[in-house]
Amino acid sequence: MVQIVQGSGPFPDFSNVHIVIDVLRAFTVAHYAFMKGVRGIELAGTVHEAFRMKEMNPDFLLAGEAEGLPIEGFDLDNSPARLNSRDVEGRYLIQKTTNGVKAVLNALNADHVYVTGFSNAKTTALHIKHRLLKNDPRLTVKIIASHPSGDDDLACAQYMKSILLNVNGPTSEETAARIIASEAAQKFLDDTITEFDKDDIPYCIREQECGFVMKVVRVDNIPRIERVPI
Question: How far apart are the first and last CA of the chain?
């Protein structure tokens, strides 16, 4: 069974697989961070917790946003375009975001937890389909569109669901068009709103063949996104 739910939780029901989507922009940032050589991304529920984790690991980089905006004292914001110009190879990140990270922390009650944006959605769906569902089609899968009302994450979720179930559904081009047209994307495309970078949008709507998926594991009881080769 494959189910789509929307919002950042909490999600009380257990599923075998949880897939948490944040297209604009948390897990697009995570995807590009791993492509640039980041070793792992630890997840923080609050800004205070993020700074506490940084105190324990001074070499880790703080990354994320609060209500979409940069957080004072963080090393990186939530922009994939700006991340792509930074040297982060070999580093660990501590990520705190409004929807995506919160949704993951509320969705840990599963055997397998994955995160993705649209850039890695097809790769993630095919990995789960061929590595997990092929062996046991009875597995329950919950696809979590973390934005509580936005069509960007929902479009990606519906795209992934059609791949998982091997049924006709929205194409990648149609999904990218819905992301661009979504209310969440408009603040990036409005030149009068300078807090949001329109250069982020191409990163969020471009599929990337990267050879890995992003899976959440626990390291010393801290949720961490790791790069898993496929």
Answer: 23
Give CA 117 to chain center in angstroms.
5
DSSP secondary structure of 52-70: HHHHH-TTSEEEE-BTTB-
Residue for token pair 């030149």? 191
Q: Do 107 and 20 meet the contact criterion of CB atoms below 8 Å apart?
A: yes
Q: What is the C-alpha to C-alpha distance for residues 107 and 62, in angstroms, rounded to an integer?
A: 22
pLDDT greater than 90 at residue 12: no
Tell whether pTM > 0.90.
yes
CA 102 and chain centroid, separation: 11
Taking the CA atoms of 153, 194, 63 and 202 in sequence, report the sign of the dihedral they define: positive
The helix (run of H) or strand (run of E) holding residue 16 is strand 15-21
Rg of the chain in Å (alpha carbons): 16
Write down the residue that tokens 């807090």 correspond to.
Answer: 195
Quick: pLDDT tens for 41-68.
999 999 999 999 999 999 999 999 998 9
- The three-state secondary structure class of 2 is strand
Euclidean distance between CA atoms 33 and 28, whole angstroms: 8
Helices (H), the chain: 26-35, 47-56, 80-83, 100-105, 121-128, 151-165, 172-181, 183-189, 200-204
